[in-house]
Each structure stands twice: as structure tokens, then as C-alpha cells.
Specification:
Elements (H helix, E strand, L loop, with lengths): L9 H35 L4 H30 L4 H23 L4 H29 L1
Length: about 140
């Protein structure tokens, strides 16, 4: 199966990538705020350090999930055909931008690679949700 550039919805790719980047920056602000609060909490209650750190990382994963799912949903709403392909491309584009930025600042990390890889299925979940929702409304 070959794909022509003319078959791609550049509007969908741009909208999905912009949504992930903009919403991702907002979610990073939320994550950093919780992480700062966790550090203050641990200063007063050091016995809770590991549990609260795990909670903050879980929150980060959930915020990442929401960001990628929203980007996939927006992409799927705008793309007319080959919705899942558009979702994969948006995940790679936005993940690549984020990955390149983190490489220029701090280098390669395990979490960076893991989040880049997990971005694809999370974005496809958003695409799948829109497909499912649109099929339900047309019936």
C-alpha cells in the first residue's frame, strides 16, 4: 500500500501536532507544579518520599496519555481518510519535536525513549475513539 502526499491531510497533521504541543506544555506545567509540591511535602514528611514520587510519576504518565489521546482525537476529526496513518504521523512528528528538544537539553534518557514509543499507541487510541464515536452517530 502506497500513500501519496496529496492523500495526506496537512491540516489534520498540523492541528494534531499543534494540539499535542500546546496541551503538552500545559500538562508539563501541571506536572512541574505537582512535583514541586511533592518536594515540599517530602521535606516535612520524609517517610512518604517514595510513595509520593511514584504518585507524581503516575500523574505524569496520565497527563501524557491525555495529551496524546486528545491529539489523536483532533487529528482523526480533521482527517478524511487513512485516519490511523495520520495518527501515527502526528505521534511521530510531535514525539520527534519533543524528543529533539530533550536531546538538545539533557541527552537521551530511558523515559524519553519510552514516552516517544508510547506516544504512538496513545495517539491511536484517540483516533480509534473518534472512529468509534463517529460510527455510533451515523447509525
Amino acid at each position: 500500500m502506497s500513500v501519496r502526499f496529496s492523500e495526506l491531510s496537512w491540516k489534520a497533521l498540523l492541528a494534531g501536532t499543534a494540539t499535542i504541543i500546546a496541551f503538552g506544555l500545559l500538562m508539563q506545567l501541571v506536572f512541574v507544579s505537582f512535583a514541586a509540591g511533592q518536594m515540599i511535602f517530602v521535606q516535612h514528611f520524609p517517610d512518604w518520599a517514595q510513595l509520593t514520587m511514584a504518585a507524581v510519576y503516575l500523574l505524569g504518565l496520565l497527563l501524557f496519555l491525555l495529551t496524546m489521546v486528545l491529539g489523536g482525537y483532533i487529528t482523526a476529526r480533521i482527517a478524511i481518510n487513512q485516519i490511523m496513518l495520520h495518527g501515527v504521523l502526528v505521534a511521530i512528528l510531535s514525539g520527534g519535536i519533543s524528543f529533539a528538544q530533550s536531546l538538545s537539553v539533557g541527552g537521551l534518557t530511558l523515559f524519553g525513549v519510552l514516552f516517544f514509543i508510547l506516544g504512538i499507541p496513545f495517539t491511536l487510541i484517540g483516533c480509534w475513539f473518534w472512529i468509534r464515536q463517529s460510527n455510533r452517530t451515523t447509525q
